[in-house]
C-alpha cells in the first residue's frame, strides 16, 4: 500500500475516532437527505400540477362558445412553466419569478404570484434546497473537519518524525488531499442521487453529470483551500479564523455586494415607469379598437386603392379585423423592443454579477448550477419569449378569423340588439388557432456552454490552490 | 478595565473581526440609504408623470366612461425613514401600482419584479448583518477566549490571579461584545441622523441588536468550556449558528406554509377574468342583479338609452368580476395575515427570526405594512368607483376640468419609523 493511501487512511481513522466529526457528518448527511427528499417531492408535484394546469387552460380556451373573435383576444390564455427535472436539486429563480403568465391581446403581462410573496417572513436564508446547502453551508463542514489535517500532526509533534522518516511534504500533502477528497465525494453522494433521479425522469445525463461535477469541483476548491491554510498556518485557532473569514466574505458578503453593485451600475427602470414611457410610443400607433383612428388612414387609403372601391364596406374582407391585426403587429414590435431592452439589461447585470465569481466561488457555482439545472435567468427569459410567441400567434390567428370569417357589416352592427349580437359571432371551431405550449429545458449542450466560464473559474481556483498547496507542502518544516 | 481593553486591542484577531464588522455595517447602512433614496426618487417621478399623463388623457375624452377606462392612477407606499435598515417585504411585495377603474383583482397582483438572480442572492442590508452575520462575529470573538488561554497554559494563572474568575471572563467577553455592538450600531445611528429617524426607533433597534448579541454571548460562553479545544468549540458553535440562523427559520417557513395553505393566486385572477368575459354574453340583468345588491341606489338608473354599448354596464360587470373573485381574494389575504401571525408567535423560539421581524416592524417593511398598503389601494379604487358611478348612472355631461380637480387622489399613509 502506498504511503499516500496510508496517510489518508490514518486521517479517516482520526475523524472516525472523533465524536464531533462523526456528529457533524451525521447532522449534515441527515440535513442533506431530508432537504433532497423534500425538494424532490416539491419539484415533482409542481411538474405534475403545472402540466395539468396547462392542459386545463388549453381545454378551457378551446371549449369557449361561439363569440366575436376579438372577444377571444381579450379572453386570453394562460401558460405555465414546468420546472425542469434538475429543479429537484436547484429550483433557482422559480420561486422568485412566478410560474404562470397570462396572455392577452395588446399587452405583455409579467409573471404573477411568485411563491416568495405570500411566504411567512421568518428571516434566515429562506427555504433550504440541496443547492443552497451545498453552496452555502457544506464549506463550513469541510473547514471544520479539514482545517486540522496538517496542523494536527504539527500540534501532536508528529510532523517532525514523519518528515524525517522520509515522508516528503508533497507526499503528506497528497495523502491528506486524498482523505479530504474521499470526504467530499462522500458528501456529494446526495447530489449524485439528484442527478441520477433527474436523468431517470427525462433529464439529459450530461447536464446531470456536469451539475454533479460542478458541485464536486466547488467542494474541491474549499477542500484544497482548507488544506492550504492548514499547511501554511502554525495553529488551529489561526487556521480556523482565516478560513471562517474567507467563508464569511466570499459566501455571505461579496455575492450580496455584487448584487448591489450590479443594480447600482446598471439600474433597471421599474415596470410602471417603463409602461408610462411606452404609453407615449403606443399612443402614436393608434387604438386598434377604433378603425376610424387617423393612424390607420393610410392603411384604409391603400386598401381602397388596391381593390379599387370607394368605401371599406365594399372591401372583400373585414376592415376592422385588418386594423386590429395591423395594430397588433405594430404594438407587438414596440412591446418586444421594450421587453428585449429589459432582458438585455438583466443579462448585462448578470454578467456584471458573474464577474464577482472570480473572487467568490460561491457566485460561480451558484450561477453554473442554475445554468445546468435550467433554472437560470436565461431560461426564464426564453420562457417569456416563447410565451410571447404563443400570445402573438393566437391573437393574430384570431384576427385572421376576424378578417376572413366575419363580415364588416355584421361587425359594425354587433351592438344592435340580440340578432345583431348573434350575427357578429364566429364558430367556436376557430379557436383551434391556439398552439399547445409545453416548456422544456434548453438542450444540455447549450446549458453547458452557458456554465462553462463559471466552471472554468472554479477549475482555475482548484488547480491554482493545489499548485500553491504543493509548493507550500514541499517547504513544510516541523 | 483599561488594562483589559488594551489587551483586547493587542489581539490581532479581535481587531480584524471588529474592523470587518464596522466595514460591513457602514456598507449596509450606506447601501440601504442609497436604495431608499432611489425609491423616493422613483416615486417622485411616477407621481409627476402620473399627473401629466392624466391631464393629457382626460383632455382627449368625451364621456365619463372612456375617461374612467383610459385614466390610470399611480399608487405607492413610500419607504419609512427607517427603511434603510431593513428593506424586508418591499423586495418581494409590490409597493407601487398603476390602477384604473377596471376590475381591481386583475391589477393588484402585478409585481414590479427585479432581476430574479438578485432576489435569490439577497440584499446586503443592516438587518442581514445584524441577524445573520453578527452572531458569527460573536462566536469568532469568543470561542477561543478561555480555550486559547488554556492552550497557552495561562488559564490557571489568570483565574488564580483574578478575584473572581467568572467576573473576569464576563468582563473580557463584555468588552469584546460591547465593542462589537458599538461598531455595528454606530453606522446605524449615523444613518438614522441622516434619514431623520425618530430617536425612539433607533434606540429600540439598537436595544434589540444588543439583546440579540447578549443572547449569543451567553450561548457561546455556555457552550465553549475551557476544557475543550478552540477548534472543537468553534465547530460546535458553527453548528449552533447553522441551526438557529438557517435551519430553524427555514423549518418554520415550511411548517407554516404547509399548515396554512393559501388558495392558488392565479385562481383569483382566473375567476375574475372568467366572470368579466362571460358578462359580455350574459343578459344584462345577470350583471345588474349582483351589482345592485351592493349598489341599490342605482336600481332606477340601469335603463339602456339605445341599442348599443353602455359604459355603466361595462363597469358594473367589472365590479361583478371583483365580487365573484372576492371570496378567493379574501381567503388569500386572510391566509397571508394568518401566516404572518403564526410567524410572529413562532419567532419567540427562533431568535434570528425575532430580530429580523422586530427590525422590519420598526422599519415599516413587514408583511403587515404590505397588507396595509394593499388595503389602501383597495380603498382608493373603491373611492374611484364611488366618484365615477354617479356621473355614469345619471348620464352627466363630461367635464375634463371637473374631473381634473375633483378626481380622488391617492394619499399614502404617513409613516414614521415605529
Walk me through this protein's architecture.
The complex is a heterodimer of chains A (478) and B (418). Chain A has 478 residues and is an all-alpha fold. Chain A has one domain (1-478). Helices cover 70% and strands 2% of the residues of chain A. A two-stranded antiparallel ribbon of chain B has the order 1-2.
Uncertain segments of chain B are: none
Query: Helix/strand/pairing class of chain B, anyone?
Result: mainly alpha
Query: How would you write the strand order of the largest sheet of chain B?
Result: 1-2
Spatial strand arrangement across the major sheet of chain A: 1-2-3
The average pLDDT value of chain B, as a whole number, equals 89
Query: Which radius of gyration of chain A do the C-alpha atoms yield?
Result: 30 Å
Give the tally of β-strands of chain A: 3
Which descriptors would you attach to this protein?
heterodimer, A: 478 residues, mainly alpha, B: 418 residues, two-stranded antiparallel ribbon, 2 strands, elongated
Amino acid at each position: 500500500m502506498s504511503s499516500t493511501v496510508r496517510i489518508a487512511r490514518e486521517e479517516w481513522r482520526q475523524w472516525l475516532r472523533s465524536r464531533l466529526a462523526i456528529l457533524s457528518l451525521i447532522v449534515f448527511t441527515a440535513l442533506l437527505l431530508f432537504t433532497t427528499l423534500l425538494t424532490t417531492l416539491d419539484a415533482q408535484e409542481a411538474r405534475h400540477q403545472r402540466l395539468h394546469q396547462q392542459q386545463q387552460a388549453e381545454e378551457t380556451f378551446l371549449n369557449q362558445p361561439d363569440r366575436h373573435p376579438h372577444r377571444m383576444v381579450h379572453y386570453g390564455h394562460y401558460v405555465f412553466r414546468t420546472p425542469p427535472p434538475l429543479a429537484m436539486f436547484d429550483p433557482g429563480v422559480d420561486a422568485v419569478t412566478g410560474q404562470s403568465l397570462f396572455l392577452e391581446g395588446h399587452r405583455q403581462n409579467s409573471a404573477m404570484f411568485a411563491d416568495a410573496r405570500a411566504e411567512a417572513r421568518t428571516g434566515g436564508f429562506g427555504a433550504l434546497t440541496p443547492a443552497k446547502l451545498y453552496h452555502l453551508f457544506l464549506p463550513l463542514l469541510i473547514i471544520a473537519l479539514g482545517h486540522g489535517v496538517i496542523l494536527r500532526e504539527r500540534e501532536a509533534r508528529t510532523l517532525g518524525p514523519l518528515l524525517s522518516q522520509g515522508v516528503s511534504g508533497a507526499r503528506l500533502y497528497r495523502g491528506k488531499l486524498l482523505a479530504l477528497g474521499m470526504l467530499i465525494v462522500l458528501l456529494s453522494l446526495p447530489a449524485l442521487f439528484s442527478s441520477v433521479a433527474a436523468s431517470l425522469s427525462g433529464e439529459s445525463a450530461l447536464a446531470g453529470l456536469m451539475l454533479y461535477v460542478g458541485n464536486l469541483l466547488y467542494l474541491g476548491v474549499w477542500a484544497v483551500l482548507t488544506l492550504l491554510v492548514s499547511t501554511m498556518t502554525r495553529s488551529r485557532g489561526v487556521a480556523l479564523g482565516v478560513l471562517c473569514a474567507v467563508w464569511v466574505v466570499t459566501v455571505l458578503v461579496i455575492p450580496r455586494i455584487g448584487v448591489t453593485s450590479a443594480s447600482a451600475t446598471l439600474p433597471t427602470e421599474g415596470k410602471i415607469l417603463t409602461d408610462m414611457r411606452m404609453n407615449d410610443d403606443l399612443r402614436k400607433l393608434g387604438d386598434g379598437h377604433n378603425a376610424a383612428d387617423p393612424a390607420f388612414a393610410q392603411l384604409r387609403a391603400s386598401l381602397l386603392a388596391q381593390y379599387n372601391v370607394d368605401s371599406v364596406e365594399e372591401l372583400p374582407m373585414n376592415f376592422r379585423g385588418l386594423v386590429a391585426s395591423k395594430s397588433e403587429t405594430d404594438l407587438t414590435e414596440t412591446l418586444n423592443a421594450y421587453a428585449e431592452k429589459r432582458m438585455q439589461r438583466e443579462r448585462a447585470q448578470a454578467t456584471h454579477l458573474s464577474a464577482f465569481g472570480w473572487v467568490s466561488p460561491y457566485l460561480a457555482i451558484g450561477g453554473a448550477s442554475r445554468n445546468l439545472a435550467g433554472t437560470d435567468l436565461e431560461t426564464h427569459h426564453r420562457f417569456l419569449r416563447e410565451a410571447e410567441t404563443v400570445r402573438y400567434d393566437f391573437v393574430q390567428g384570431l384576427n385572421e378569423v376576424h378578417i376572413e370569417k366575419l363580415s364588416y357589416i355584421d361587425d359594425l352592427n354587433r351592438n344592435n340588439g340580440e340578432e345583431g349580437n348573434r350575427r357578429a359571432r364566429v364558430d367556436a371551431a376557430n379557436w383551434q388557432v391556439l398552439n399547445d405550449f409545453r416548456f422544456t429545458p434548453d438542450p444540455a449542450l447549450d446549458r453547458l456552454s452557458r456554465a462553462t466560464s463559471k466552471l472554468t473559474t472554479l477549475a482555475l481556483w482548484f488547480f491554482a490552490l493545489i499548485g500553491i498547496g504543493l509548493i507550500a507542502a514541499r517547504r513544510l518544516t516541523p | 478595565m483599561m488594562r483589559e481593553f488594551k489587551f483586547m486591542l493587542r489581539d490581532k484577531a479581535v481587531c480584524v473581526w471588529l474592523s470587518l464588522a464596522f466595514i460591513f455595517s457602514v456598507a449596509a447602512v450606506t447601501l440601504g440609504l442609497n436604495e431608499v433614496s432611489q425609491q423616493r426618487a422613483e416615486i417622485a417621478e411616477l407621481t409627476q408623470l402620473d399627473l401629466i399623463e392624466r391631464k393629457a388623457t382626460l383632455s382627449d375624452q368625451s364621456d365619463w366612461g372612456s375617461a374612467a377606462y383610459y385614466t390610470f392612477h399611480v399608487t405607492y407606499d413610500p419607504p419609512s425613514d427607517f427603511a434603510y435598515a431593513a428593506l424586508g417585504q418591499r423586495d418581494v411585495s409590490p409597493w407601487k401600482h398603476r390602477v384604473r377603474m377596471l376590475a381591481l383583482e386583475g391589477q393588484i397582483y402585478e409585481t414590479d419584479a427585479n432581476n430574479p438572480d438578485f432576489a435569490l442572492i439577497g440584499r446586503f442590508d443592516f438587518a442581514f448583518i445584524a441577524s445573520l452575520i453578527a452572531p458569527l462575529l460573536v462566536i469568532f470573538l469568543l470561542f477561543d477566549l478561555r480555550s486559547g488561554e488554556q492552550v497557552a497554559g495561562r488559564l490557571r494563572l489568570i483565574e488564580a490571579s483574578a478575584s473572581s474568575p467568572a467576573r473576569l471572563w464576563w468582563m473580557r467577553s463584555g468588552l469584546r461584545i460591547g465593542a462589537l455592538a458599538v461598531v455595528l450600531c454606530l453606522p446605524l445611528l449615523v444613518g438614522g441622523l441622516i434619514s431623520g429617524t425618530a430617536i425612539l426607533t433607533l434606540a429600540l433597534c439598537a436595544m434589540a441588536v444588543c439583546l440579540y448579541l447578549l443572547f449569543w454571548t451567553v450561548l457561546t460562553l455556555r457552550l465553549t468550556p475551557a476544557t475543550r479545544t478552540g477548534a472543537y468549540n468553534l465547530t460546535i458553535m458553527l453548528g449552533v449558528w447553522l441551526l438557529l440562523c438557517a435551519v430553524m427559520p427555514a423549518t418554520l417557513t415550511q411548517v407554516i406554509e404547509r399548515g396554512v395553505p393559501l388558495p392558488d393566486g392565479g385562481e383569483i385572477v382566473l375567476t375574475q377574468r372568467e366572470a368579466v368575459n362571460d358578462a359580455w354574453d350574459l343578459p344584462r340583468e345577470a350583471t345588474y342583479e349582483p351589482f345592485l345588491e351592493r349598489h341599490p341606489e342605482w336600481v332606477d338608473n340601469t335603463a339602456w338609452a339605445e341599442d348599443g354599448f353602455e359604459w355603466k354596464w361595462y363597469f358594473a360587470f367589472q365590479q361583478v368580476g371583483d365580487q365573484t373573485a372576492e371570496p378567493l381574494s379574501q381567503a388569500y389575504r386572510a391566509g397571508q395575515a394568518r401566516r404572518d401571525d403564526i410567524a410572529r408567535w413562532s419567532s419567540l423560539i427562533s431568535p434570528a427570526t425575532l430580530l429580523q421581524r422586530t427590525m422590519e416592524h420598526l422599519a415599516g417593511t413587514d408583511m403587515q405594512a404590505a397588507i396595509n398598503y394593499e388595503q389602501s389601494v383597495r380603498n382608493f379604487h373603491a373611492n374611484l368607483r364611488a366618484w365615477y358611478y354617479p356621473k355614469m348612472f345619471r348620464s352627466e355631461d363630461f367635464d375634463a376640468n371637473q374631473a381634473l380637480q375633483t378626481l380622488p387622489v391617492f394619499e399614502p399613509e404617513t409613516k414614521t419609523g415605529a
